[in-house]
Amino acid sequence: ADTFDDECDYLFKAILIGDSAVGKSNLLSRFSRDQFRLDSKPTIGVEFAYRNIKIGDKIIKVQIWDTAGQERFRAITSSYYRGARGALLVYDITRRRTFDNLAKWLKEIKELGGSDIVILLIGNKTDLVQAREVTEEEGHRLAEKEGLCFMETSALENLNVEGAFLQLITRIYEVAK
Ligand code: GDP
Ligand code: MG
Questions:
Q1: Do the strands 10-17 and 86-92 form a parallel or antiparallel pair, or are they unpaired?
Q2: 20 lines ligand 1 (CB under 6 A)
Q3: What are the pLDDT digits (tens) for 55-87?
Q4: 126 lines ligand 1 (CB under 6 A)
Q5: Which of 53, 74, 103, 134 has the most CB atoms around it within 10 Å of its CB?
Q6: ipTM more than 0.90?
């Protein structure tokens, strides 16, 4: 183990899932590097980022996995889900279809993820006020029905992004400790 790992108390894997172009990669780059991209960047293979978070006197290291566009082909493999303690399930508030597809994603998480995986539902792109197709109330209702946490974010304006990841990580920690 390297010294970095020796200095952390917990190491968790978390994953990003949801339809193509909902903003998953930009949420992650905001959280890990405070960057935003206007173009969508299709890459090959799985990407991930690390960040250390302090909760109380514990240092939590999270490894956050991002898809490399496989979701476009419904081709996310079981290894992506394996060992994940948390998931950010993202839809785009300006495209109802991405909200309607959440049922499919939830089914896949339940099949391929662990039974105690923490899921945070994210309605992204709140900056696009005029284009909104899914109300915040609808997001809340679905989250309540499925027993998920819920937040709306804007990766573009960096709104609630840090808060969303921190909420996910805190919940994972509470389940795991
Ligand atoms: P992914 O396919 O889910 O990883 O989505 P990306 O992160 O690649 O984003 C897809 C597109 O949506 C890109 O053009 C981004 O610039 C844009 N995008 C992502 N997040 C936001 C946001 O919060 N607001 C706006 N207006 N655009 C966003
Ligand atoms: Mg992406």
A1: parallel
A2: yes
A3: 889 999 999 999 877 888 777 888 899 999 999
A4: no
A5: 134
A6: yes
